[in-house]
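WARN retry 2 of 3 for item q-0093 after timeout on previous attempt; input resubmitted unchanged.
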Amino acid sequence: MLTIHDQVRELRAELASCALTRREHAQARSELDQLLALQARMDRATDALVFIKEAPPA
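OK item q-0093 returned
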């Protein structure tokens, strides 16, 4: 199973170097946008769970 990062990398490579029809290009771009949005939501959720304490004064 591919990770989101792997899928994003593959889609970016496909969009950059493959001869796609307009429909294929639009589909790949849509999938890439959806994956990037999903990753952003996951990043925000992770950030909300992380609690970093400040170091005590020296």
